[in-house]
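Colleagues,

For the teaching module next term, I've prepared a clean inverse folding example: a structure given as tokens, and then the sequence designed for it. I'd like students to try predicting residues themselves before seeing the answer, so please don't circulate the second half yet.
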């Protein structure tokens, strides 16, 4: 038996879907990785993102995210660390050459780790878990069980959307096998990621 009503679950699912369809750092970085490195690297990134979202959800369930939200020092440190990490990824994408990328062997662990770190340094994820998710927790039912299940639903929806992005962006990889086209596309996506990083810094400011 579900710890909350079906109507609540559907409402939360719709809210999570709309939130995840809003363009953000995850979408842009996944498009950059998948279009230039292929779907395997893209899916490795998706796995890291999913784990990051799950960890933040678990942390929020035990109240740690509220402490971060209440502390200006912790919040600002996390916000700027996330912004700088995104700018670093954009810079690396802009400066990397096709020969360097091929020589690296495309280790899946690198992209998994980057997807994980990007979301652990994302205060907006923590805000979602402490500002949006609790509004769907029904009184009179086990709060922890509801929080865990809603977190699972959110991560599942986000992962499904991210997987679609990987599939769509990955179809461009054969077209980008030409070094000149690959460089143009990589730099365009890197510029977009840098713009998203600046938007991220602005949108998360207090």
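(Answer key — instructors only)
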């Amino acid at each position: 038996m579900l710890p909350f009503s079906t109507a609540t679950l559907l409402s939360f699912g719709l809210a999570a879907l709309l939130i995840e369809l809003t363009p953000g750092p995850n979408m842009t970085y996944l498009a950059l990785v998948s279009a230039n490195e292929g779907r395997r690297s893209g899916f490795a990134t998706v796995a890291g993102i999913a784990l990051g979202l799950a960890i933040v959800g678990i942390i929020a369930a035990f109240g740690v995210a509220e402490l971060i939200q209440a502390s200006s020092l912790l919040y600002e440190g996390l916000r700027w660390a996330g912004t700088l990490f995104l700018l670093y990824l954009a810079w690396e994408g802009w400066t990397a050459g096709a020969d360097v990328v091929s020589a690296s062997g495309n280790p899946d662990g690198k992209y998994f780790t980057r997807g994980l770190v990007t979301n652990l340094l994302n205060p907006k994820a923590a805000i979602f878990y402490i500002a949006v998710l609790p509004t769907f927790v029904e009184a009179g039912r086990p709060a922890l069980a509801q929080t865990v299940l809603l977190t699972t639903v959110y991560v599942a929806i986000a992962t499904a959307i991210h997987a679609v992005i990987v599939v769509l962006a990955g179809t461009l990889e054969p077209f980008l096998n030409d070094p000149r086209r690959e460089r143009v596309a990589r730099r365009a996506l890197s510029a977009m990621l840098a713009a998203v990083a600046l938007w991220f810094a602005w949108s998360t400011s207090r």
